[in-house]
Amino acid sequence: MNPRDARRAKEQLAERYGGDVRRGTQERILSSLESLDPHLREAAELYKAITQFDAHVAPMIPADRVRLISPIQSQMVDDDRKKLETIMEEHSLSERELHNIYQRITWDASADAKAIQADILGNVMKPELQERITKACEIAVQATRSEIALGKVLDVGCGHGAIVRSLVDAGLSEPDMYMGIDLSQIMVNNAVNRYGSARNGRTGKGRHFVAGDFLKHDFVAGGICAFDSIIFCSALHNLPDMEASIGKAASLLRSNGGKLVVVHAQGAEHVLEQHRANPVLVKRGLPTSKEWTQMLQKHTEWCLALESCPADAKSPQDMKEGYLAVLTKVSP
Ligand SMILES: C[S@@+](CC[C@H](N)C(=O)[O-])C[C@H]1O[C@@H](n2cnc3c(N)ncnc32)[C@H](O)[C@@H]1O
């Protein structure tokens, strides 16, 4: 985008968000929460209060809990838990659904701003961060080059198609090879506007963006049995159940060399900071090397081998390279 268009795009964006994009996003989130059905709104508020309390208490040693948390406070949270359980039971709501309410509302609220800001920057990140995304995309694309490849890459939590350009630059030449899924319909609308989805058109081919929950989406019913690679770019920590998400990804990878790529350009410590700042949106950090090893020992049915260990939070490698975990699907 040339500087004049970029200035205009920025002005239009600020106008759409009431003069201040950050404040405008918060206002959109609040207004979406307010417009929920009353039982969902109450459940979402209780879920938020309980999650924030639990995240605040989790790092405390028992003595500090006794010293810092009053019995009245504990009682109030216990009462909230009971109230929430009742609403969830009455309306057959799961914790995943509650988590997804905040995800959907937050990403819908910020989708246009993220897409336009990416357009202004030419759909690339700062050079040192872009390098990390490029490396992850190259690994994902490489998996499509094997003799037994199916020619399919899945981008989970694809947003507005943030890594489509990087995948294409890494050699993903056929649009048909790419599928992106995101919970936010507005993110997906922006992705389709920017990168096209010929499936919406005459040919039935082309990039395929889907608005939906990765954990619920039935890929097989949609005609796709497996992918050569599945990439979570800045997304795994946003899903409601990390272990279930990895398990589902493993089940969708082709055997003998399919790749699972989990990347976060800003790194593991950055995600932990996001978790500390907003435990409702970011339930936990990304898996450490040790956690990957434990999960793989527990879930031998995944048939995944850890090929490249991610850096631990606060380590020099995390600061230098960000977070990158690469797993290979092996034969059962
Ligand atoms: C931090 S954004 C990252 C977007 C994009 N990958 C990028 O690198 O800019 C996380 C994305 O994950 C999506 N997401 C959250 N939960 C999801 C789920 N259960 N299924 C699919 N996408 C999900 C959100 O809607 C959001 O767009």
TrEMBL record:
SUPFAM superfamilies in UniProt: S-adenosyl-L-methionine-dependent methyltransferases
InterPro entries per UniProt: Methyltransf_12, SAM-dependent_MTases_sf
Domain Methyltransferase type span(s) in chain numbering: 154-257
CDD domains xref list: AdoMet_MTases
Pfam families (UniProt xref): Methyltransf_12
UniProt-listed Gene3D superfamilies: Vaccinia Virus protein VP39 (3.40.50.150)
UniProt superkingdom: Eukaryota
Protein name: Methyltransferase type 12 domain-containing protein
